[in-house]
Amino acid sequence: MTSPTPASTTPRSGACQCGKLRFTVSGEPDYPHTCSCGHCQRLSGGPMMSWVSFPLDGLAWSGAEPSWHYTWPDSRRGFCPACGSQVCALDDGATSIAVTLSALGNPPDLVPVNQSFRETAVPWLPQVPDTRS
Ligand SMILES: [Zn+2]
Ligand SMILES: [Zn+2]
Fold it and tell me: Which residues form the CENP-V/GFA domain (predicted)?
């Protein structure tokens, strides 16, 4: 008998808008949150992006792999070279990778628990409450 895999660690699949870029992530999701920093706003074209992190060794690309753009000297964003969808963010040397909740299709069990960079958030949208315990 093997114990059932906890639902939270079941591998999840994600994709960009055009579908050329596909991936799976597995392992425990860490810190789902939104971010309204200037980089997230300009890159996404929207008022914020939404993120959750997974162990880097649990990430697998299938099909195309992302193109990368460094937004900081040691931190880069991964996006689809065909459609431009923002799908992930990776710090140099990190052991985890942040993927967008959007690329994952906004799984209902991954609800943002906080919002980063509230100081640069647009004033016309409610902010995500900090529900970390
Ligand atoms: Zn694409
Ligand atoms: Zn951001």
Answer: 12-125
pLDDT tens per residue across span 26-69: 999 999 999 999 999 999 999 999 999 999 999 999 989 999 99
pLDDT in tens, 5-30: 566 678 999 999 999 999 999 999 99
Q: Is 31 within a domain?
A: yes
What's the 1 CA to ligand 2 centre distance in angstroms? 44
Whole-number Å distance, alpha carbon 84 to ligand 1 midpoint, is: 6
Instruction: State how many domains the chain has.
Output: 1
Q: Which residues form the domain of 60?
A: 15-120
- For residue 77, which of 103, 58, 55, 57 has the smallest C-alpha distance? 103
Dihedral angle computed from the Cα positions of residues 87, 16, 66 and 25, in that order, rounded to the nearest 10 degrees: 60
